[in-house]
Amino acid sequence: MLDNELDRFFFKFEETNDYMIFETHQLTPPIGDYIESIFHFKDFIPDHSIERVVPTGHVFIIFELDDILRNTFDNSTLKPKNTFTKAWISGIHKNYISISAHQKSEMFVIQFKSFGTYPFFHFPSEDLSEKILSAEEVFGEELIQLRENLLKQKTSQKKFSVAEKWLTKRYNESKTPSKELLSIIERLQKEPVTNFNKVIESYPYTQKHLIDQFKKYVGVTPKYYQRILRFNEILQQVRQKENISWSQIAYQCGYADQSHFIKEFNHFSGFNPQEFIKQEFDKDEPNFFPLDREG
Length: 295
Prior knowledge:
By secondary structure, the protein is of the alpha+beta class. The chain has helices at 3-14, 118-121, 135-139, 142-152, 156-170, 179-190, 196-201, 207-217, 222-240, 246-252, 258-269, 273-278, and strands at residues 21-25, 35-44, 50-53, 59-64, 70-73, 80-84, 87-90, 97-100, 105-112, 132-134, 288-290.
């Protein structure tokens, strides 16, 4: 989620979770240039127990502060697949994932911008692509100790201060992406999908160099990143329209034909467009879709 999407998401649930705490924290440069958002929530009460999460192009460090075990599930059978506790890292995903949602949960999350992990992690983002890893696998005991420190803090603001100090300590300016790469990423985020080739060709070095830089800093190729951006743009359009014309959306988003659009929609969400509307996911938040709303 982008930061404004997070605000909408939790505002919606605060309406029915009277005692829920939700706080966000914006960082200042230089580390703020690479972090989308930091947020803390407590006493969240979802109306489901399993949710589908679609790719957004971000990497997350996630801390549970409630001692509740979290699960990922097989996307087809929804049987438990892996279990996570204390702290873990979710890399950039190319496909949707299924995760557990819990009553009265408390979590603290650091959301990195699409190009933001390398200055802090000091290894290529590609190493995390399509993976959810325990904190110990990536940082040893470092994040577990950070979690213990977060637990000691009584307020969200004090937790943010602890996390900011950790990020500042980890930050290495020599590992930041080049201005040429940042320019390409920014243009892909802002310009129409039909400009893709033009944007890529504006890179001053070789296309192989660009692909290598994308894998290092973003975790996927420029083309795949553009596909993720385009799908998220579709979700935004669907939420904003009362009368949806799938053919018009497919055309506006640069798909060759409607069958290609449907295939891509299913790839990223696990639903075909008509099923998506029937389940009223267009009324939910853009990246989280309940699979057992009565659960």
